[in-house]
Structure formats: structure tokens, C-alpha cells
Specification:
The structure holds 2 protein chains of 2 kinds. By secondary structure, chain A is an alpha/beta fold. In chain A, 34% of the residues lie in helices and 14% in strands. The N and C termini of chain A lie far apart (55 Å). Chain B is of the alpha+beta class. Chain B folds into 2 domains: 106 residues, Alpha-Beta Plaits (2-Layer Sandwich); 105 residues, 2-Layer Sandwich (Alpha-Beta Plaits). Helix content of chain B is 23%, strand content 32%. In chain B, strands 1, 2, 3, 4, 5, 8, 9 and 10 form an 8-stranded mixed beta sheet that branches. A two-stranded antiparallel ribbon of chain B has the order 6-7. In chain B, helix 1 packs across helix 2. The chains are: A alpha/beta, B alpha+beta. At the A-B interface, helix 1 and helix 9 of A face helix 1 of B.
Chain lengths: 622, 224
């Protein structure tokens, strides 16, 4: 049995000691004397969330296939362990070896949402690594970030030595090779950073000088020491050849996504104008049916999971979906494996499939119209008409479902009160369609339930709405109340439920999403005051954040409610994400006119992602 | 066919709770291709039940699970299959075929044996296994306040302690276990410390290993 970082009685006094053992099935143990690079890969949230993340599993597997690398995991210590580590002076440790993170060569942190930023500081702090990259000297790990938030890394840039823009599969091998070379020479840290900055996709924040105009906007963003002017997003060219974790980790405790995950494709053809993922993962690339069948068999056989989830941004758009599902139903449904299909468009085909793999009576169907009026749906380029939604619901009701979930957003650009009220009207019409579809004698006393929920729209970098003004917290609340009231006035209000997500976080998320380097001070200040686990509503301390904002003199509205000028230089403009700024601007202008843009398969909109030479851009040109 | 397995739980597995061990077995069955039977209905689950939950922090040589298989299989083959896929610290030590009409393991448990000692450095001054044993033999009864659903209640442990002996620094005890009367080994330790007028063990200061589970006939659930 391996030596643990904590004593038994310490572990037993924690709420869930299983979080900190590193003994999961398929965890990788190595002899550290036989490896050159120790890599700690971190998801800065609690274990159950971090263990549910596919990206970590992919990189963990890929790194550990190299003999010279031992990659281990780190998650945010929960508050009980946080307290214990501080009180007892125990440094944060990686799960597999249980050795201190500060002795590693790299600490890689995935940045999946802005509200994990204080948790990033906690990881550095508890590890004993200086928070700011500029203060790191000598033998301290290189801290590298990745994930969707690096598409505007500026608010956290000061805390990272390196940031990796794009898909990790591509440039890490070279980064490791360069690191080994550097280590041999015994040169200074800055030497390695300069070398790394020349690897495609690697951004070294300390090599860039930033200046601002008097009005607070960015004036210049200048590279030094041979760092490139633009850092290009890295994209896997062929998903069928990309490394895939054949033996994923299987936790003992129940985690948020407690199932095997099969990534069927990357990217999306849809071009919804609010969606960042839709732009930054372009172009759409599919895994072939052959590869997916093989991988499904591998992961189910090596884990024994009783559920497999087909993961992508829009699984219905996979051209071989039917073949894959037929295979899974044929081979695995008889072995009692559930098939979960989280992002399917509701149509006759998907309902037929779901009827086969789910308990219709218990389940509810989810539609994401995102907006209530057709005008608003055109603005956001959600290629969905009211009739699509209603006929989808009708099919569902005929198939035996009587619960429907509808997802909406409030605060979209150009939104009027009329648009907001039409959300409730649409939900009401869905209920009406139930009464029209299902005769009274077949309802068996069951009331149809249409559950609508609304979240608040936050403009994100690399979307057409990156120029748009975000609503203020007060305006969000007014809109939510208006919508609540409208729901109560609907004729079928007894069959309608409406809830909205708390808006506490939206303002901060909006602040950091389009923030700049000056915000690192605010993060440090909020963390020092005790802000941590901000994405957990029970632990989000609004007053502490307000204090920190005041002390740091941050004008939140400058970042959130201000509409940007067409030619403003954005903090994230140094990234080449494939999608051009001029394309995004034209999409923004089309949005203002309520014009839609067809999806990538219907016709190419010339976004710029074709330069990668792969995926949907070339589907019919082969 | 119905089978019963005995398994041990050591090392890091001591931190894995009862429900998670059940889930681990379900996954082991799938990985090993054990022909386990499933319940009917829209959300079928494996016909698998466990004898008596083991608290987190305890190790065990004698855990039991019952399983129904949809086809015949040789016990030795099954044992081999389980251990091929079992996580470190979890080992199946015996598989036996159950007679058709046998009661399930959970309903069969009447007592459990444990090996108990103080974690190094946690033994209260004045406590020794020999003293504890002597005082226990001399005292007519062993009473303790026990928390029940109806509040604090004084209970007599004496009758429920079927065996108590010392092996060096370890106390070996067999105590009533199951739905009728359930005595936790830590409660016996509390009572013994009271008897010796020494402080009760603090949280997590005992090292406890369950040795075996016994049925109505005072024999282990798998008698070999």
C-alpha cells in the first residue's frame, strides 16, 4: 500500500476521504526515478466535478503513454481539507504519488469557467507556489493553463507561466521535448519560457507588454523576445487518429457524470451567436463510426460502467449517429448498459431512439429554444422555428412523454419586453399542443408539465456578441420578474413552471469573461478575503466580492454593460482562433438586422476556420 | 443459481463506504463478464445483496455478498474472474453455491467478530487488554448509555458479547450483529474504558478489523 500524504485519522475526519486517495481503477502509478517529467493535471473544483471531465481523462491518458512523463491528478481540496492543510502546514499533494505539487515539473490547470479563478489561486497557494508567475524563481513547477477560458486568459494571465490555446493533443509532445532539453542545460526559467513561446499554441503572458488608452480600453499589446504576434489555436486534424483513453479512470464515489463518455465529434456547425464553444472548437470534426464502435467497446469493457454518454455540442449532427446507436443498442443494451444522449435535437428519429433507451414515463425531454420570439431566435441565429418546437413537442407527447423542459436566455442583445413575454407564450403553446394531441381519456389523470428555465446571457470573446452590452444585475432581475408575472397570466399556468438561475454570479462572470490584465489584482484581493468555490451558490460571498471591487477600484460596468466600438482592440485579439474578427463583426451586424446565417453544412459562411484544412469545411470536397 | 462470496477489504479500500463497495462490485461483474441476473422492469439492476455494512475506516477479512446468476458457473472459475478485475485491497476469498431455499446473507447475520486495538499513541493511560479482560470477567454487567432512535438509553452489553479475549495488544471480540441486536465494537471499547475508569477512545483512535460474520448456528456465513 502506498504512503499517503495524510494520516489515517486525518483522512477519516474528512467528509469524503475517497476524494484524496488516488486509488481509482485505472489510475496510473509509475516509478518516479524512471521518468523525466512530473506533471500535475488539475481541475480547480471539487473531486466529483473534476472527475467528470473528459478533457482531463484524455490528457492524463496521453501524457502517461509517454515513458518519460508521469501525469497525476489534483482537484481543489474541499473546505475541510483546505482548513486542515493550512492549519497543519501540509503542502497540497497530487493524488497518485501523494507527493507535494510544488516538487513537480508542471502544474497544468484546466479553466472551464470563469468562476473557478479563486480556486486556481487556492491550488497555487496551498501548493506553496508563488501566486504571480513573476515571483517564481528556481525549482518551482511551470504553471500552464488550458481549456475554453484561455480564449481570454488576460484576467488570470499574471498567475500563469504558460497558457495553451486550443486542443492539448497537438503541442504537448513538443513542449515536453523542449522541456527535457532545457532541463539538461540548466538554464534559467526565462530561457524555457522563450523557447516555449515559439511552440504553436503556447502563449507566454510575461513576454507581452500591454498599454491602455485614457478611456481604459486597450491601446497596444506587444510581444517581446521573439514571441509571436498571434498565438494560433491548435486543432486536432484527424480525430480517428487522436489518442483516446481506452481505460478511463473509474471513481469509487458517485461523481457528477458517473458514466463512460464517448466523444463523437468536436466542433459545431450551428453558429448560434451567443455560443462560445460553437466558435472556438471550429471546425466540426467527426469520429468515424468504426472508431466510435471500437472505442465504446474499449471503455465499457475496461470500466464496467453501466451507462455510456454520447458527447458533443450537437450529437444529432453526426452523420453516422444511427449506425452508432444501432450498434450500441444491439451490443450493449442486452448487457444492461444505458445510453444517454444529452444533446439531441428533438425530432422523429431522436424520439424513436430515446423511446428505446429511456424510461419514457419517468423522463423529461429537453428543448433549447433559447428565446421566445422568432425575431429573437433569428438575432441569435438559433435555427429553430416555433413550428419545429411545437411539432417536436407533439411527437414527444404522442410517444408518451408528458414532461418537457425548455431552456431560455434573458438579456440577449436587442431584447424587448415583448420578446420576454413571448417566452411564457411559447411555453403555454407547448402545453396547448399537449391538450390538442393527447385525448382526455389517454391522460390518465396526469398533468402535462412544461418546465421553463432561464439563464442570463453573458457576452463571450470570439462570439459575434463580443461587442455587445450585457444587462446590469438590476435589469436582469426586472426581466426575470416580468417573465415570472407573464407565466402566471398564461391560461395553462397550472401546467407551467418557471425558474431562473441566480444572477449573483452573472455580473462577475461577465466581468472576467471580457476582462483584461488589470483584473488579476481583484482576483488576488477577493481570494485574500476568503472568496473560494464561487461557482457554488452556498459558498459565494457577494459582500466580499463587493468589498474587493471597491478596494481595487474596478469599474465593473466598463467590462460588462459597455457596448464596444467596432474597431476596439480586445485583450484576446492576440489569439488566432481560426474565426476572423471581420466574420464575427459581420455576424454581429447581421444579428442587429435579425438576419440568419445558414449552418456550415448548408453553406460556408467563410468564418476562417477552413484554414485548418479539415472537418466540415471539406466534407463534400474530398 | 445463487452464490455467496466472502471478500476482504484492506488498505485504501477501508476508506470506501458500503454503497460504493456495492457499486464497485456491480462494475466488477460487468468487467469480469459474470453472468449475474438482473431484476425485471424498466430500470433493471443486478441481483446482488450484501450481508452487513462495514463502517468507513474499518478493514475486514469477512465480508459477504449474495448474487444470483442466470446460468451455472464453477465457483473456482468465478473466484478467479472476480480477482482478475478487483481493485487493489478488495479480494474475493471464497465462492460457494447456496441451496435454493437459503436465507440471504443480510437476514442470516447474528454476530460478528472483530480485532480491535488502539492506534499507536492513542491508547489511554491505564488501559491494557489484560486489565480490560479481567475487569470484564469480574464485573457482573457491562452497561453503557447508547444513542437510540428514542434518545439516550442505558443498555446492557454483557449478553451481546459472545466472546472476548486478548491477543497481545489486540482484543478479539464476537458481538451481536444484525437487525435484532447490533453492538458496534467501538461501543464495547467505550464500556471497557468506563469500567477501567480511563478516558474513552477519541474519534478515529481505534484500529478495527472485522474478522468474520456468523449466522444463527454460530458458524461463519460461509463455513469452510
Amino acid at each position: 500500500m502506498k504512503r499517503l500524504a495524510l494520516k489515517e485519522e486525518q483522512l477519516l475526519s474528512l467528509e469524503k476521504p475517497e476524494r484524496y486517495l488516488g486509488n481509482e481503477l485505472n489510475a496510473v502509478m509509475k516509478d518516479p526515478s524512471k521518468t523525466d517529467i512530473r506533471f500535475a493535471i488539475c481541475f480547480p473544483d471539487v473531486y466529483e466535478i473534476g472527475m467528470s471531465h473528459l478533457g482531463i481523462q484524455i490528457l492524463y491518458d496521453m501524457f502517461n503513454r509517454r515513458e518519460d512523463v508521469w501525469c497525476e491528478r489534483v482537484y481543489s481540496p474541499w473546505l475541510d481539507l483546505d482548513k486542515m492543510l493550512r492549519e497543519e502546514g501540509i503542502p497540497l499533494f497530487a493524488l497518485e504519488s501523494q507527493e507535494p505539487v510544488k516538487d513537480f515539473d508542471f502544474l497544468g490547470i484546466t479553466l472551464q469557467y470563469e468562476m473557478c479563478y479563486t480556486n486556481v489561486l487556492q491550488i497555487l497557494d496551498l501548493s506553496g507556489i508563488p501566486l504571480r508567475a513573476s515571483e517564481r524563481k528556481g525549482k518551482v513547477p511551470f504553471v500552464i493553463g488550458g481549456g475554453p477560458c484561455v480564449f481570454n486568459p488576460e484576467p488570470i494571465a499574471d498567475f500563469f507561466d504558460l497558457l495553451y490555446i486550443g486542443e492539448g493533443e497537438v503541442s504537448y509532445p513538443r513542449l515536453f521535448d523542449e522541456y527535457k532539453e532545457w532541463k539538461k542545460t540548466g538554464a534559467d526559467r526565462s530561457e524555457f519560457l522563450r523557447t516555449a513561446s515559439r511552440i504553436p499554441g503556447i502563449y507566454v503572458p510575461s513576454l507581452y507588454e500591454v498599454s491602455y488608452r485614457e478611456d481604459g480600453t486597450l491601446k497596444t499589446f506587444t510581444p517581446a523576445h521573439g514571441a509571436p504576434e498571434k498565438v494560433e489555436k491548435q486543432v486536432v486534424k484527424n480525430l480517428d487518429e487522436a489518442p483516446f483513453p481506452e481505460k478511463p479512470l473509474v471513481p469509487f464515489i458517485r461523481v457528477t457524470q458517473d458514466r463512460a463518455v464517448l466523444e463523437v465529434m468536436r466542433g459545431c456547425i450551428r453558429g448560434c451567436r451567443f455560443c462560445q464553444a460553437g466558435q472556438i472548437y471550429k471546425p466540426l470534426r467527426e469520429r468515424s463510426a468504426e472508431t466510435l464502435k471500437r472505442e465504446a467497446a474499449f471503455i465499457l469493457d475496461s470500466t464496467g460502467q453501466d451507462e455510456i454518454s454520447l458527447s458533443s455540442l450537437s450529437t444529432s449532427d453526426h452523420r453516422s449517429l444511427k449506425e452508432i446507436l444501432d450498434f450500441l443498442i444491439e451490443e450493449y443494451a442486452s448487457k444492461y448498459v444505458n445510453i444517454s444522449l444529452p444533446s439531441l435535437r428533438i425530432d422523429a428519429f431522436s424520439l424513436d431512439v430515446m423511446g428505446k433507451v429511456q424510461d419514457v414515463k419517468k423522463g423529461s425531454l429537453t428543448f433549447a429554444p433559447e428565446a421566445g420570439s422568432q425575431r429573437m431566435r433569428n438575432v441569435i441565429n438559433k435555427g429553430l422555428t416555433k413550428e419545429d418546437i411545437l411539432s417536436g413537442a407533439e411527437l414527444a407527447f404522442k410517444g408518451g412523454w408528458n414532461k418537457v423542459k425548455l431552456y431560455f436566455m434573458l438579456g440577449l442583445p436587442t431584447e424587448s419586453d415583448e420578446d420576454i413575454r413571448s417566452i411564457a407564450e411559447l411555453a403555454n403553446e407547448v402545453a396547448v399542443r399537449y391538450f390538442d394531441t393527447v385525448p382526455k381519456e389517454e391522460r390518465k389523470g396526469i398533468r402535462v408539465m412544461v418546465n421553463s428555465s432561464a439563464s442570463f446571457f453573458i457576452p463571450k470573446p470570439f462570439t459575434p456578441f463580443q461587442w455587445a452590452a450585457m444587462d446590469s444585475a438590476e435589469e436582469f432581475l426586472r426581466k426575470a420578474h416580468l417573465l415570472s408575472d407573464t407565466f402566471r397570466e398564461e391560461t395553462n399556468h397550472k401546467s407551467l413552471k418557471f425558474q431562473y438561475h441566480e444572477n449573483d454570479l452573472s455580473e462577475l462572470e461577465g466581468l472576467f469573461a471580457r476582462g483584461d490584465r488589470r483584473l488579476s489584482q481583484l482576483l488576488e484581493c477577493a481570494y485574500a478575503k476568503g472568496c473560494l468555490y464561487d461557482s457554488w451558490s452556498d459558498y459565494f460571498h457577494r459582500p466580499l466580492w463587493e468589498e474587493a471591487i471597491k478596494e481595487c477600484g474596478v469599474d465593473v460596468s466598463f467590462y460588462t454593460t459597455r457596448e464596444r466600438k467596432a474597431d476596439e482592440l480586445f485583450p484576446w485579439d492576440f489569439i488566432d482562433a481560426g474565426v476572423s474578427k471581420s466574420f464575427l463583426r459581420s455576424e454581429y451586424e447581421k444579428a442587429m438586422r435579425g438576419e440568419v446565417t445558414p449552418n456550415c453544412r448548408t453553406s460556408c459562411a467563410g468564418c476562417g476556420a477552413a484554414k485548418y484544412g479539415v472537418g466540415v469545411c471539406y466534407e463534400n470536397k474530398a | 443459481m445463487k452464490i455467496r462470496l466472502r471478500f476482504s477489504k484492506h488498505g485504501l479500500m477501508k476508506y470506501i463506504g458500503h454503497l460504493d463497495v456495492m457499486r464497485a462490485f456491480q462494475k466488477m461483474n460487468a468487467r469480469a463478464g459474470i453472468p449475474v441476473a438482473y431484476t425485471e422492469g424498466f430500470s433493471p439492476h443486478q441481483k446482488l445483496s450484501f450481508a452487513h455494512p462495514l463502517s468507513v475506516g474499518l478493514e475486514s477479512d469477512g465480508e459477504y455478498a449474495d448474487m444470483e446468476l442466470k446460468e451455472e458457473a464453477a465457483p473456482e472459475k468465478l473466484l478467479e474472474s472476480f480477482n482478475r478485475v478487483s481493485p487493489e485491497g478488495l479480494a474475493v476469498t471464497k465462492v460457494s453455491v447456496l441451496p435454493k431455499d437459503s436465507k440471504n446473507a443480510m437476514a442470516s447475520v447474528r454476530s460478528a467478530s472483530y480485532r480491535v486495538s488502539f492506534r499507536e499513541g492513542y491508547s489511554p493511560k491505564g488501559f491494557s487488554t489484560v486489565n480490560a479482560l479481567n475487569s470484564f470477567k469480574n464485573a457482573g454487567s457491562l452497561k453503557i448509555m447508547k444513542e437510540t432512535k428514542k434518545g439516550l438509553k442505558e443498555v446492557e452489553l454483557r449478553e451481546g458479547i459472545r466472546e472476548l479475549r486478548a491477543e497481545g495488544d489486540f482484543l478479539i471480540m464476537r458481538v451481536d450483529t444484525g437487525s435484532e441486536n447490533n453492538i458496534r465494537p467501538s461501543l464495547v471499547m467505550d464500556a471497557l474504558c468506563d469500567l477501567l475508569s480511563v478516558p474513552r477512545p477519541g474519534p478515529h483512535s481505534l484500529l478495527i478489523t472485522r474478522l468474520d460474520l456468523y449466522g444463527e448456528d454460530d458458524r461463519p456465513l460461509i463455513d469452510d
